[in-house]
Amino acid sequence: MTTGLGVDADxxxxxxLDVLRGADLPVxxxxxxxxxxxxxxxxxxxxxxxxxxxxxxxxxxxLFTGVPDEGHAKVYGLLLHxxxxxxxxxxxxxxxxxxxxxxxxxLAAVDRGLLxxxxxxxxxxxxxxFDAVLRIGFAGYLGHEQRWxxxxxxxxxxxxxxxxxxxxxx
Length: 170
Fold this sequence. Notes:
Strand content: 15-25%
Largest sheet: 6 strands, antiparallel
Order of helices and strands: HEEEEHEEHH
Structural class: alpha+beta
Number of domains: 1
Shape: elongated
CATH topology: Yope Regulator, Chain: A
Helix content: 25-40%
Distance between the termini: 61 Å
CATH architecture: 2-Layer Sandwich
Radius of gyration: 19 Å
Number of strands: 6
Strand order of the largest sheet: 1-2-3-4-6-5
């Protein structure tokens, strides 16, 4: 289907599927030109992403975390500051208060290079920010997990360690 701008939304959808499959990413075409995929980061191990081709734009949405348990002002401040550096992908809240990453680009701008850039920005943003958000917004949970790990004789979770410490001994 061609938009009034001469851009074929179905063609962009096909390109999106081709790029995701070419990158060996999981692809689930869920209909209405919507595609689910999953990126893998170093810190945020699983990064789900919904990509939707509309008549005028390509939109992406990714669940980052649920509603923080604590430290809301600090978490939101961190994410708003991170948004200053963003090009296409920004932090937002969904209707339930969960933290999401979202982006939108005009359909006419979509090509292989831009798709690679969008997915890369999503991965980098999620991965760079994840540990800090966990330490601030889920500190109580992390503390409980660290105590459980110590009691069970397990190595500490590095996310729960103060920055700069890994719990490793030399």
